[in-house]
Amino acid sequence: xxxxxxxxxxxxxxxxxxxxxxxxxxxxxxxxxxxxxxxxxxxxxxxxxxxxxxxxxxxxxxxxxxxxxxxxxxxxxxxxxxxxxxxxxxxxxxxxxxxxxxxxxxxxxxxxxxxxxxxxxxxxxxxxxxxxxxxxxxxxxxxxxxxxxxxxxxxxxxxxxxxxxxxxxxxxxxxxxxxxxxxxxxxxxxxxxxxxxxxxxxxxxxxxxxxxxxxxxxxxxxxxxxxxxxxxxxxxxxxxxxxxxxxxxxxxxxxxxxxxxxxxxxxxxx
Length: 270
Fold this sequence. Notes:
This protein is of the alpha/beta class. The protein has one domain: Rossmann fold (3-Layer(aba) Sandwich). The protein contains eight helices and eleven strands.
């Protein structure tokens, strides 16, 4: 059984950059504080190593915003990038949305140990979520889970089990691994990232962003997930947008800002 699942993962899911785009170094002059030499050192960024329940050690970065509006984003990236490559986007999202943001590398990505697998990514996001709660005091009702492409898998899985989240963002998400490869009508036992079967259990507002010209994950995936969401937020279908360029469109940040603000207003009204 595991062999079939591994075959799907090999065809579709995991392509960590080789070699990794960054290293992690301990600065002994600052009490062993971790930093990434390949990116500018900043006082508002923490570099962390987190132990997962599967025994792997993953790398995460936490970007702090001095005027954060009480919102934190936990970002799960796509299948062909690592934290070093994503860092500039993390900082931009934090600045433009006025939020704190944690991004992390899956097991087997960047300087995270272990091997990438569906089960490991679930453990990876859980370790990051636990760190936000225990180390930074983030409450569920302050937290937005953000999943890009394959990152929609661990995002939807955690969101389906966490009832009081502030919100969820799914960018070019997948219905499931099999459905990216083949136009199947039902879910098979050996499929991975069965978002189609879990999205209905997500209790918070869900924003879906997808490009209409996505060449990797057809935007019908995003449309269907939005249709199946329990608490729908106005989606963003970017005309002509591909799989890896949505951040370049002005409506991208504009719509995210509107979503974050609406969630903050909703929370303030409780």
